[in-house]
């Protein structure tokens, strides 16, 4: 059964994987764990229990040195954010943690979803982040959705994180194409792709249950997913059959500035 702590762990692992793929950094400062994404010039503080000035000050100073244009904090809803407010952080829309097995059903969309195909249209940070699917040992797959004319209209990532969780990240559908079943098709493809099945079997072997994993695959049983999304996407994932397991907090420093003394 997926938990909020498990979903947070999968989210953390993904952010660290993206940093590794794009030449970023992971570092700590007095109990604060930071991730630097140079492709987006984004500094993130991940799930501090009780952030204090002693950890925030050097982390923000490092972000200023790196040239961060965005500084964000993701944290448990119960964590104390008072020190963050003292540095100018304000609340942004929360993150909603979902988990479950996607519902089966006929998809009316007539386009195609493929896992692992190249994306020649990708440029800039999008192109750099696609490298996460090729990192050895990180077990990430990427799916694209295209119309019958070959136009790219959606994409998403899935990562087999530690603990056997399959986490979805970066699911996106072009605004004009929403409501046609593309998102559902991406979720289904990422949950049931051969690469996903192989990763699940590897996890099961590690736990001595490979035979059970093969039996489940033969019966067509689906992998339980975990993900974090914005409030606006919560209805979509609920419609896919995923349940809300909790809420987290998201804070931003607007605009990023050197830390106060």
Question: Class of the largest domain in CATH?
Answer: Alpha Beta
Query: Can you give the mean pLDDT?
Result: 89
The topology string of helices and strands comes to: HEEEHEHEEHEEEHHHEHE
CATH topology call of the largest domain: Aminopeptidase
Strand content: 25-35%
Oligomeric nature of the chains? single chain
The CATH architecture classification of the largest domain is 3-Layer(aba) Sandwich
Largest β sheet strand count, sense and barrel closure: 11 strands, mixed
What is the count of helical runs? 8
Taking pLDDT < 50 over at least 5 consecutive residues as the criterion, the unreliable ranges are 207-221
What is the topology, as strand order, of the major beta sheet? 1-2-3-4-11-5-10-9-8-7-6
- Alpha carbon gyration radius: 19 Å
Which bin fits the share of residues in helices? 25-40%
Structural category is: alpha+beta
Distance, first to last CA? 44 Å
Give me the count of strands.
11
What would you say this structure looks like, in words?
Residues 148-191 form the N-acetyltransferase domain. 37% of the residues are buried. The chain has 2 domains: 4-96 and 247-253, Aminopeptidase (3-Layer(aba) Sandwich); 102-223, Aminopeptidase (3-Layer(aba) Sandwich), CATH 3.40.630. The chain has helices at 4-21, 53-66, 82-86, 124-129, 182-192, 194-206, 210-218, 234-239; strands at residues 25-29, 32-37, 42-46, 70-76, 89-100, 112-115, 140-146, 152-160, 166-173, 225-229, 243-253. Helix 6 (194-206) packs antiparallel against helix 7 (210-218). Helices cover 31% and strands 30% of the residues.
